[in-house]
User: Fold this.
Amino acid sequence: MGELAALFQRFDWYSLIDVAIVTLIFLGLLYLVRGTQAAPLLRGVIILGVFFTILSSFNTLPAVSWLLQRALPALLISIPVIFQPELRRALERVGRVVQIGGPSTRHATDTDHMISIIALACQRLADRKHGALIVLERATGLENYADTGVKIDAVITSELLQNIFFRNSPMHDGAVIIRHHRVLAAACILPLTTSYMSDRRLGLRHRAAIGITEATDALAVVVSEEHGTISIAHNGRIIRRLDAARLEMILRAFYQLDRRHTPSRLTRTLRRLVGLHNDPPPPKSPAADASYDTADSRTVNE
Assistant:
């Protein structure tokens, strides 16, 4: 009790700030891995760390203490390898902090026109059951994925998207990447999600859509070739069974959230630094009766 009282006596404002910073760091880590495969891994690392710390506190176990001292450098090297996707996502969030002013509103009309074109093209492709995968670039650049396909750099039109994803087209088998209201590239190869999918009927297009949104902040629109349904993926989650009207409303909601001015830039910057800034899901009204599925064991209502 005397040591505890002495500890509280030394507690000042600097100690409070120190504890608050450490708390924010751990809170940011928890939010960063929430809902990902890294969550159980992080719990396992914490449990092992606590267990080995307790063992090393016993002076009567010199062999265990020696083993822990030798294993610590290997553990420090393995942690970045294990949590590489989460660390990459965190660094991308920190890098996006420099965009303090937020997305420009000068091209709001062009954005609305682009959304209408995408919705119309997806509806016509869905009616013909032509599969499609359209990726909309946002803050994170997709140049490395565009390099895997065929560069186009053309003005986006409904007819162009329909021709690209026509079944006999040589570029229909990959993804189209859209940047600044233009078709940047087609037939692009995207990373597939490795997460467990509750619905085995989701094909490679849906896995690629979820995979690219896990790695970046892009939006991915999918048209199922088998069922003729439209879906949209964002942040590793997918909203299914949409029509053109609902797809257009959801896309407009995302871009309106991008353009919305937040009252405190400092608050937004701090939240991104600690990993608390999660891109908000679209409003429930555009897709109230759509299936909202994640890459986990949750069931999908068809």
In short: Residues 131 and 209 are 13 Å apart (CA to CA). Residues 13-33 form the longest helix (21 residues).
